[in-house]
Amino acid sequence: MTKLDVLNLYLKERLKVAADEIFQVLKDTILEYQNEIALTKEENRDLKQRLSDVGAISAGIQRVLSAERRQLNPSPVCERELSAAPAPGDPQTH
Prior knowledge:
This protein is mostly helical and about 90 residues long. Helices cover about 85% and strands about 0% of the residues. Keywords: Coiled coil.
């Protein structure tokens, strides 16, 4: 084997080792990103559920507030109906 052949073999071995190290680092990085993506997806699902829960609670609160407003401030139509309705115990005329 000539010196050139020995050098060629040595360089091939070193390049293979370097390529293996690069691929291992790349593989580790990809796995790390996949784990981060999975965690982010899980967090997004949790946040969507929380947002949905808050929306449902908010809608319920809005219904309660709206009902309270109607009770405290009857609309003009309701006021007319209330003023035209006979008081309880009053004889009704037909």
